[in-house]
Amino acid sequence: MNKFVKYILILAVVILSVSCTTGKKDTQKTANYAQKAMAVISIETLSMEDTVMDFVTKPVAAHVSQQIATWTPNYVMPPAPYYEDCTITVKDDTGEVLLEEVKAEVKVRGNWTTNYIKKPLRIKFNKKQSMLGLNEGAEFKNWVLLAGYKDTSFLRDKTAYQLAGELLGAEGYYVTDAEFAEVYINGEYWGVYLLAEQQEIKKGRVDITEADDDYTGTDIGYFLEMDGYYYTEAELQRFEVNYTGWASIKAYDGNKGRSTRGTSVNKGFTIKSDIYSPEQRDFIANYMNRVYEIMYYAAYEDKAYVFNPDFTSISETKDLTPREAVERVVDVKSLALTYILNEIACDADIYWSSFLMSVDFGEDGAKKLTFEAPWDFDSAFGNKDRAADGKGFYAANIMMDVNNRYSSFNPWLAVLMHEDWYMDIIRQEWTEHYDSGMFDRVFEMIEKDTHQYSEAFDRNYERWNNLIDKSAFQDELTPKSKAVKTHGEAGMLLHQWLKTRVEFLNSKFHL
Predict the structure, then answer these.
(1) Cα–Cα–Cα angle for 221, 225, 227, nearest 5°?
(2) Nearest-5° angle of CA 281, CA 348, CA 391?
(3) How far apart are CA 70 and CA 65, in angstroms?
(4) How would you class 262 by CB atoms within 10 Å of its CB: exposed for 0-12, middle for 13-18, buried for 19 or more?
(5) Contact between 333 and 171 (Cβ < 8 Å)
(6) In sequence order, what are the residues at sequence separation of 6 or more whose Cβ sits closer than 8 angstroms to the Cβ of residue 5?
(7) Residue 193 within a domain
(8) Is a pLDDT exceeding 70 seen at residue 239?
(9) What angle do CA 408, 411, 416 make, to 5 degrees?
(10) Does a structural domain hold residue 114?
(11) What angle is formed at CA 470 by the lines to CA 469 and CA 472, rounded to 5 degrees?
(12) Best exposed site among 71, 269, 282, 357 by fewest CB in 10 Å?
């Protein structure tokens, strides 16, 4: 045997040995995550009518069906979501009964997701209940079940909420708790859902001053959503922001920034909390317009503006720096942490909707615009064709709308991004959270849930077939998301994308 052939054989043995060893380590690591049962939520309707299941199979949000009708010939308008009287039974992952036949109302909830065959649901109990120990066992009437239909990993929302919990929740800002459960409706298997909290003003949720019924004063808490569907809300529950007369700012691309001149901006807001007078609506609309002006003047004119005592107008002052003026009316830490979360996630809807904030003018309220209650991430983390390679700056940058028709951006995330003091806060927060092991914990969660719940996920996809048949949402996916055929592949894709994303951002933000 000549030396060359001998060398090749030795090399082959070494490679085979390394390959076998690596495979053994991977097998051992996976074996640590033994199969685990999920909690079970059983919904039983009180009605026994033959058509009773229509409440969970047919409804589509009215504004969504109206949109679909404009491009679909002979489209038959479905019913809008409606509540059905039910009882709810909940068992934990050991089979222990936590709630048994508790009365509630259940309906389909959401926007575009109501158009899918597997629909998200809202549970409204007659009396406050704890659900699976979420939020430290706090009791509330309202809970939601997220369907995760177009997220074949089923882990994007949970990943976002875990990251948000470490970023925002640890600082006292509200973030929903969440846990998986398998759902049955009238004895029929309905698949895996992510149980989460209703985004609402309540002690233990968005904890700001809730207006008493029919109270018309403006000294209350306001829970707000930048919402592309604001026009569907009652006039009392919506308003518009004109962003300093549509003044151009610089989007953040990691360099000098691109001008947003001519770029579309979502002007609409929904007031998600209850208000009872036009005075309340007009007050918060004016406040939001003036707060943005304070941020804009600080960042682009190097001027400090302050509110008058009743928060109805602003004027320039020399007594504060521009930064101090912003910090008087904006909880800047919450904004910086919200930016970090959204820069990680690259959610396709960040310019459009589900971007939430609050401000409390109650007696003990901070009277600062606070960014909290992050929501709706099933298009994020590389699922939709946005930042598909996991690189580049996104959340405060110019992006295409969800249908690739026009460019847009999120002014609240972008307006301060070229201020050195604000970027210092972002870098400091990123470094502290990165060094804390936050990403190690979220990667462990993704891997753990992918393996230990694989049988439950398989049952879900056998029920709905949306791992194989993605026709209802395939135009929303990246090529890689389209290609996955198993839940394991989908979980691995999420893990790989997030790893690339974290490495890119760490190279830019870590001190």
Answers:
(1) 150
(2) 135
(3) 9
(4) exposed
(5) yes
(6) none
(7) yes
(8) yes
(9) 135
(10) yes
(11) 115
(12) 71
pTM of the model: 0.92
Task: State which residues form the domain around 87.
Answer: 39-150+176-197
CB 487 within 8 A of CB 153: yes
Residue 6 maps to a domain: no
**Is the pLDDT assigned to residue 8 strictly greater than 70?**
no
Burial of residue 201, with CB atoms counted within 10 A of its CB: 0-12 exposed, 13-18 middle, 19 or more buried: buried
Q: Which two tokens stand for residue 454?
A: 């694989």
* Among candidate residues 411, 399, 392, 401, the one with its CA nearest the CA of residue 249: 411
Whether the Cβ atoms of residue 307 and residue 290 lie closer than 8 Å to each other: yes
The per-residue pLDDT for range 452-495, each reduced to its tens digit, is 999 999 999 999 999 999 999 988 899 999 999 999 999 999 99
Q: How many domains does the chain have?
A: 1
Q: How far is CA 335 from CA 161, 167, 493, in A?
A: 16, 11, 29
Q: What is the DSSP letter of 220?
A: S
pLDDT in tens, 176-227: 999 999 999 999 999 999 999 999 999 999 999 999 999 999 999 999 999 9
DSSP-derived secondary structure letter, 385: S
Q: What string of DSSP letters covers 153-182? A: TS-HHHHHHHHHHHHTGGGT-----EEEEE
Q: What tokens does 419 get?
A: 């201020």
How far is 277 from 98, CA to CA, in rounded Å?
A: 41
What CA–CA distance (Å, rounded) separates 71 from 84?
Answer: 31
Contact 331, 368 (CB under 8 A): yes
- The burial of 345, by beta-carbon neighbours within 10 Å (0-12 exposed, 13-18 middle, 19 or more buried), is given as buried
pLDDT score for 15: 36
Find how far residue 21's CA is from the centre of its chain: 40
Which one-letter amino acid corresponds to residue 338? T
Say if 406 falls within a structural domain.
no
Q: Which residue has the tokens 């092991």?
A: 437
Lowest mean pLDDT among 116-130, 353-367, 368-382, 465-479: 465-479
